[in-house]
Amino acid sequence: MSQGKLMPVEEALASLLAMADARQLDQSQELALDQVRQRVLACDLVATLDLPPWPNSAMDGYALDLAHWDGQPLLVAQTVFAGRPGTPLQPGTCARIFTGAPVPAGADCVEMQENVELLDDGRVRFTQALKPGQNIRPQGQENRAGQVLLEAGTRLGPFELAVAAAQGCTRLPVVRKPRVALLSTGDELLEPGMALREGCIYNSNRTLLRHWLDALGCEVIDAGILPDQPQQTRLRLEQLQHGADLILTTGGVSAGDADCLGQVLRDSGRPLFWKLAIKPGKPLTVGYFGQVPVIGLPGNPASALVTFGLLARAYLQRIQGVGEVEPLGVMVPVAFDWTRAGSRREYLRARLEQGRAVLYPNQSSGVLLGACWADGLVEIPEGRTLQAGDLARFIPFSELF
Ligand code: AMP
Ligand code: MG
Fold it and tell me: Which reaction does it catalyse (predicted)?
């Protein structure tokens, strides 16, 4: 492990993904549709139905056989509602039809009711030019039976679940949840509800990460707070390596005397990398303890947020089989000058105002509130300066959940 030079973000990401590829979760389980939100699909979802299953009307109107029509008004011989199929169209007639209703056999055109004149004798006159197939949604317009609708590795959100429901699915196979042991380190930490003691702060990282892990389909093993004590740190890691797919920690990875987590990982585990060219989040430490991967996030809340969002998240996505793990970024003009080129890649909490990225005024890694104010992160590459109006990559927070 190189100690001197800072590791570029891409290299750290590639290393985490290689680690994840070797530890893909191969067990899956089949669960009811309403229990799989935010889980990852374990096998391709293949359509069993054409959708729509039969041609249906896109409008409230009248269905006719345009190919054999003489242009004269037509008798309305039947009414077809959604869910109640009609009968084949008799020559010289049309059918009253409503949106979503199956188009009767023999009809090849639907005219919307606004373009039709009802005559006193009960017939309808078509007042506009008609085209074959108009206002008919053909069978299989959306998909054909046998088509792959969702690939294995897709995370199941509302859209994907609705697609499965449209096929009549009641259950889906999903990758088993990664078990993540979540450990907060720091003598100064108290849990909310405890009386605040001098010199102490409440543990916010645990709440941040518990909910974030949950959104990523993980099972959280809450391992509580660990004091800054090497012996206890080693013991706790030994306990946690059984039954966890990942040990995720916060704090204790800088170079200070009380930073035990990093020390123990370096002394008793197998460190892979430490010290990244990223700001905030430089002390991120990754390695193995026994057979279990450990991702040691820095303790500062904004550092934990940035390194989890950009790196640990990608690892967790990939072990679940998600192919596309990098968040989508968009290039946006910045509303600020960035005059000092940094040696680390910076991620700044920012908000879009009139299409330009505006920075939260306090970018300290200890400040969490900026993340609530912001819509995402602006990325400033190493060695770059910017003037207002220059483009920078903006990663919306919505991409990270
Ligand atoms: P460390 O990475 O342990 O040196 O911690 C860096 C800073 O983050 C210190 O100011 C810690 O008090 C703070 N910190 C560490 N862990 C947490 C946590 N779980 N919640 C809130 N702040 C924390
Ligand atoms: Mg600490």
Answer: adenylyl-molybdopterin + molybdate = Mo-molybdopterin + AMP + H(+)
